[in-house]
Write a structure and sequence with these properties.
Layout: H1 2-17, H2 27-40, H3 44-53, H4 55-65, H5 70-78, H6 82-106, H7 111-128, H8 132-144, H9 160-175
Helix pairs in contact: 2-3, 2-6, 3-5, 5-6, 6-7, 6-9, 7-8, 8-9
């Protein structure tokens, strides 16, 4: 009996300790990969279903920054224009990276939150490109947030100017 109660208690604690926004699931990346896979196999019907399943995601970008991705994505898939679909999907990743870096900038003094946001941004960047230069810049961005160290040991000071400089360089590369 105690074994069952302990299991339930720890399971509940684990669920509560990891809020959804910190979960390992990146909705934009999953949608990107599923739609890309469907387009690659020329299953445009499946791609449309995937877009519909993620309708809120693609409409979110319009609400947040005025970039309409949903209808152009539907139109490109309906027209069976794989190149246009890829361009729109890439744009969704760029917008997600931009938003994540913006949140880091707002929370720059909160190391743990900034680090989590940067790890998410790096995942999106990996899905977007295989080029080495953007990844090198992302590494510099990660270093710019510093490190509080363990009880002060290994502490590295954060450098917001370096962060902003590298953020600008990265966005210049991926928005081009």
């Amino acid at each position: 009996m105690i074994k069952y109660i302990t299991t339930i208690l720890f399971s509940t604690l684990l669920l509560l300790s990891c809020p959804f926004d910190e979960a390992n699931v990146e909705v934009t990346i999953v949608a990107y990969k599923n739609i890309s896979k469907a387009i690659k196999s020329e299953d445009f019907e499946k791609a449309l279903k995937e877009v519909e399943k993620n309708k809120e995601l693609y409409k979110y970008f319009k609400e947040e920054n005025g970039t309409n991705l949903y209808q152009p994505l539907i139109d490109a898939i309906t027209a069976k224009n794989s190149t246009k679909v890829k361009t729109i999907l890439d744009r969704s990743l760029v917008l997600e990276i931009k938003e994540l870096l913006g949140q880091v900038e707002e929370n720059f003094d909160k190391y743990q939150k900034s680090r989590l946001l940067l790890i998410k941004a790096k995942k999106h960047l990996k899905a977007l490109t295989k080029e080495k230069e953007p990844m090198k810049i992302m590494k510099k961005i990660l270093k710019s947030i510093g490190n509080p160290g363990l009880m002060g040991v290994g502490k590295k000071e954060a450098d917001k100017e370096k962060f902003l400089e590298n953020k600008k360089r990265l966005m210049g590369l991926i928005e081009a």
